[in-house]
Backbone:
């Protein structure tokens, strides 16, 4: 199929949608966490990022997601997260892991995540029609005026101790306790996080082995 034919196939779902005053937002999904990315896409599809937001109207922008095959799951969700469906026959419940689903269709990972975050009403199908997901960087919308959208960076919470050791108690792991006290952030001591040497990350046995290797 030619590039024009591919573009027409994707634009066919937009025929019943008024595209006046709507933008074509392009998002690079490479290295993004699926859940966090899907939540931001659902906000754009609903039009919640606009001051004229109305839950009864379909005024969300068209979202084009590229590099969908390079997204990430946190922890071990590639093996533990399941996508279930039923065949309609008795005992027909089927489950597929996220890894198997990715190998079958990488774009369905984002599509299913966004689908679950949209309101469960008649507008969901129309909003999903404005979501176009592509596994790699190639897409047939190069001739359109695309507006890049950069997802917000992931914010990690400072994992400092938050308290001091009570009087009369001793840490079970002195090396780990000393490292965490040294690297506590603003919330615990009100001081900036200092530069830590690699040796402070090791236990006494690991430091001894490292000295032998250096010798």
Residues:
């Amino acid at each position: 199929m030619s590039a024009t034919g591919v573009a027409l196939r994707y634009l066919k779902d937009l025929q019943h949608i008024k595209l006046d005053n709507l933008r074509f937002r392009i998002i690079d999904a490479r290295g993004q966490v699926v859940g966090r990315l899907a939540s931001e896409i659902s906000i754009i599809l609903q039009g919640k990022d606009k001051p004229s937001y109305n839950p009864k109207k379909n005024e969300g922008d068209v979202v084009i997601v590229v590099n969908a095959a390079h997204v990430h799951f946190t922890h071990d969700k590639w093996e533990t997260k399941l996508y279930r469906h039923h065949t309609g026959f008795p005992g027909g419940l089927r489950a597929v892991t996220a890894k198997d689903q990715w190998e079958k269709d990488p774009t369905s990972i984002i599509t299913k995540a966004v689908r679950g975050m949209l309101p469960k009403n008649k507008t969901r199908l129309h909003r999903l029609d404005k979501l176009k997901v592509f596994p790699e960087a190639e897409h047939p919308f190069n001739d359109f005026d695309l507006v890049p959208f950069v997802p917000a960076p992931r914010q990690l919470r400072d994992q400092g101790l938050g308290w001091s050791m009570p009087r009369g108690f001793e840490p079970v792991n002195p090396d780990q306790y000393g490292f965490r006290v040294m690297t506590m952030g603003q919330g615990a001591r009100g001081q900036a996080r200092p530069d830590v040497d690699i040796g402070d990350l090791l236990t006494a046995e690991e430091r001894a082995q490292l000295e032998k290797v250096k010798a």
